[in-house]
Amino acid sequence: MDEVELVVAHSERATLRVGEVFLKVDGDPGRSAREVRAMELAPVPTPEVLWHEPPALALAAVPGTALGVLGAPSEASPAAWAAAGRALRRLHEAPLPAWPGRPLEEVEAELERECEWLLAHSPLPAEVVQRNRRIARGALRPRRPVFVHGDLQITHVFVEHDEVTGIIDWSEGAPGDAMFDLAILTLGHEERLEDLLAGYGTDVDRGAIRAWWSLRSLTAARWLLEHGFDPDAPGCEFDVLRARMRESS
């Protein structure tokens, strides 16, 4: 009998693995419905939906291995990263989903709120927070929305033989900023950006990608700390923020 593995659990959702099946339980039935619809619309490999009975969604495991993990060098080849770039370009050129994305005003409000929390609780020096806060505001610019994954962490892209075999966790799929997806995939793996762009194309706003690196790291920090994760682990969010200081010094 296959063992039940708890993949992730917090107040919003939980994911269990039993053999080759992932069971996701989400407190927001609308979010899981959008996840299913996003996977149906995305022109890239996604997990097979086995069944969906809110609040539960059962998905088949995708083949291959993740591009890497945050906090450790990616062992994937440059060709695999380029394949991820090509897949991401296909997604960004696809028709937009019918539901709205997250307004920039909401993102800006979150940035200011989380920076104030970081300054009040001091897990980082104030100058690191303030410098990255200024950099992060560069992401809050008008942009043409595209179909984005919305949470394209490096562990969400699976490859095999230098081809993408699956992209998982589509709960944030929506219209949004293409540079956000590029930034989240390379967060903590900035040295692989050029490999990714070899497949995606170089017509990108590198300043916006850097801004999203800062914004994502700033806004994720409190949640990570409060849920038992360590953003100060080597190669993780706080190192990303410190890297911006070295660039500007």
TrEMBL record:
GO terms for molecular function: transferase activity. Residues 39-208 form the Aminoglycoside phosphotransferase domain. Pfam families: APH (PF01636). Keywords: Transferase. The keyword Transferase applies. InterPro entries: AGP_Transferase, Aminoglycoside_PTrfase, Kinase-like_dom_sf. Signal peptide: none annotated. This is Aminoglycoside phosphotransferase. It comes from Brachybacterium ginsengisoli.
